[in-house]
Q: What sequence folds into this?
């Protein structure tokens, strides 16, 4: 026998608008007009309908209360750049761990790394009258975000964010994380280190590139621009970037730092196709401690961003901003952990 659930239904089963009408002593048409917010209903009837809704625990009671108080619904919009990326599933879990206890629902939009789709997602969120928006941007264009901020909708950026925008942000120390990873590879004796996944539209990746370059400079090495591969931040981009390096006659790096988890996956596929041995032929470090990273052969060295923690912080910021719009701007920059395993040759 299955164990009993501790979850209590928020709505009594089989309660309909007819039951609400009977309880309130009005017609179903009157109930519909009240719940849709129409104004041509007397105050007495409105009170009777809402009393019946509350007593019967009719499923739209929360919406009805929102209409009655004339406030935004308790919904938060989340717009991510690529929902296929498992990083975002962990971010979502962190966000919901904060929103659900506070009785907020989450509306999700996927921009597919396309600014036009991102703009459509923003418009939809505004039409849904969300109380706030959490987002991971896909473009460096500031105009759209500036307009959004002027509309008074609380907004929190995470991972990527446009420059010169006064808004709450949550991210890791991308520069420091990439610097630490590159330092580790240099400490193992590597001098020709590639970077796969540069995308100028993604602020987080540009910061990681800068950290990589600084570590090379700090070690007294000469950076090679041809080892920095521009690509999209998806699996195909990592695959094509790794192939580009492997097929180069002049630039064959002995170590690789990948810009995110998707480019890491693509790079690993290319290395397998070319029968390149890790770490004997090439060392590799990726971003994000993916569920399979420790079981990969050899186990993958990664920079763990702790995306669930990022999500929790972003959700906390947007709720705080909703409660008090006049709070000072909050900018969280968190440390990431370098988890050393066998793929970089140090174990």
A:
């Amino acid at each position: 026998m299955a164990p009993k659930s501790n979850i209590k239904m928020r709505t009594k089963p089989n309660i309909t608008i007819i039951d609400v009408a009977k309880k309130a002593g009005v017609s179903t048409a009157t109930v519909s007009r009240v719940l849709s917010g129409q104004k041509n209903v007397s105050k007495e009837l409105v009170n009777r309908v809402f009393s019946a809704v509350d007593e019967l625990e009719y499923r739209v009671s929360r919406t009805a209360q929102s209409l009655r108080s004339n406030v935004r619904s308790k919904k938060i919009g989340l717009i991510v750049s690529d929902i296929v990326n498992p990083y975002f599933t962990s971010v979502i879990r962190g966000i919901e761990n904060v929103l659900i206890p506070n009785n907020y629902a989450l509306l999700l939009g996927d921009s597919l790394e396309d600014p036009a789709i991102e703009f459509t997602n923003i418009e939809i969120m505004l039409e849904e009258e969300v109380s706030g928006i959490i987002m991971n941007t896909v473009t460096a264009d500031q105009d759209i975000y500036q307009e959004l901020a002027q509309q008074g909708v609380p907004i929190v950026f995470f991972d990527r964010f446009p420059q010169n925008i006064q808004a709450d942000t949550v991210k890791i120390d991308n520069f420091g994380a990439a610097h630490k990873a590159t330092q580790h590879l240099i400490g193992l004796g590597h001098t020709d280190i590639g970077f796969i996944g540069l995308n100028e539209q993604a602020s987080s990746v540009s910061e990681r590139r800068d950290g990589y370059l600084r570590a090379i400079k700090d070690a007294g090495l000469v950076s090679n621009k041809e080892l920095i591969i521009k690509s999209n931040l998806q699996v195909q981009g990592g695959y094509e970037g790794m192939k580009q390096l492997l097929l180069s006659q002049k630039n064959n790096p002995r170590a690789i730092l990948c810009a995110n988890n998707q480019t890491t996956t693509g790079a690993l596929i290319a290395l397998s196709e070319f029968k390149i041995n890790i770490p004997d032929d090439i060392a590799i470090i990726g971003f994000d401690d993916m569920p399979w990273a420790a079981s990969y052969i050899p186990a993958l060295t990664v920079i763990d961003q702790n995306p669930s923690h990022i999500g929790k912080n972003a959700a906390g910021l947007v709720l705080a901003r909703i409660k008090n719009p006049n709070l000072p701007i909050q900018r969280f920059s968190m440390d990431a952990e370098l988890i050393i395993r066998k793929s970089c040759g140090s174990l």
